[in-house]
């Protein structure tokens, strides 16, 4: 299904806009399935977003749910912060692998307005100040120059969602042609992307803690992140059935690549 990727600060109005778009698409396409995947369901946000391990697990579960529901025949809206550009790139690859379109809907808001909206929520749904500020600092703005963020539709705080523009972004253009790196692997478990993300990140953390065990020179986080992206792309082209091998293989990749 064509995919709408929501993105924005905490309490920027993503869920409200998602509901409005769901209503629009159900009215315009009564024969199509319209659904959303939300990060907020049964979520202790102040616990999850302040614990890197739990947050990675959440992202993995959400990615798997999006993957399960992606097809060319319906419409899926992903209602989440999606503040990491690398995560948005993974979503783009998923869409590309099933030969469907996607667009990004960004909701830029004033930080003060977002905090006020957060404060007006029921207590159980509020972000703490610490969590709110942390998510603001982590946010990586979408860029229309990036193919994974494009088409980028920006909806200002007081603006009505440009429904027809979103519709045209999904149904008025051809889907990108999948290449070998993004072709779907039907025999992979739905948790494969989560396992790949988790295990390679664990390896990066291990190397940063004790680089001398892996390489004979200083290595930086940006360099490891680049190697991790390269390795992930390779594994998608050459799937590993036994996910327990991902960590050791990535370690060997680092050792053999870093000179």
UniProtKB/TrEMBL annotation:
GO terms for molecular function: ATP binding. This is Protein KTI12 homolog. It comes from Galendromus occidentalis. InterPro entries: KTI12/PSTK (IPR013641), P-loop_NTPase (IPR027417). Signal peptide: none annotated. Keywords: ATP-binding, Nucleotide-binding. GO terms for biological process: regulation of transcription by RNA polymerase II; tRNA modification. The gene is LOC100899219. The lineage of its organism: Eukaryota, Metazoa, Ecdysozoa, Arthropoda, Chelicerata. Transmembrane segments: none annotated. Belongs to the KTI12 family. It holds the Pfam family KTI12.
């Amino acid at each position: 299904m064509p995919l709408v990727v929501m993105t924005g600060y905490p309490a920027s109005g993503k869920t409200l806009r998602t509901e409005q778009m769901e209503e629009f698409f159900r009215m315009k396409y009564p024969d199509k399935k319209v659904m959303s995947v939300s990060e907020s369901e049964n979520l202790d946000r102040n616990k999850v977003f302040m614990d890197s391990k739990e947050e990675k697990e959440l992202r993995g579960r959400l990615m798997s749910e999006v993957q399960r529901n992606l097809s060319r025949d319906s419409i899926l809206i992903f209602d989440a912060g999606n503040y990491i550009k690398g995560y948005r790139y993974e979503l783009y690859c998923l869409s590309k692998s099933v030969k469907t379109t996607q667009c990004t809907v960004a909701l830029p808001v004033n930080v003060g307005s977002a905090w006020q909206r957060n404060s007006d929520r029921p207590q159980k749904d509020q972000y703490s100040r610490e969590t709110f500020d942390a998510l603001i600092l982590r946010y990586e703005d979408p860029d229309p120059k990036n193919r994974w963020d494009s088409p980028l539709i920006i909806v200002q705080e007081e603006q009505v969602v440009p429904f027809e523009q979103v519709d045209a972004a999904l149904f008025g253009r051809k889907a990108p042609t999948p290449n070998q790196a993004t072709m779907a692997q039907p025999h992979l478990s739905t948790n494969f992307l989560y396992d790949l993300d988790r295990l390679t990140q664990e390896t990066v953390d291990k190397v940063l803690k004790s680089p001398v065990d892996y390489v004979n020179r200083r290595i930086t986080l940006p360099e490891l992140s680049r190697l991790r992206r390269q390795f992930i792309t390779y594994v998608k082209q050459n799937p590993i059935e036994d996910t327990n091998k991902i960590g050791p293989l990535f370690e060997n990749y680092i050792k053999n690549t870093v000179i």
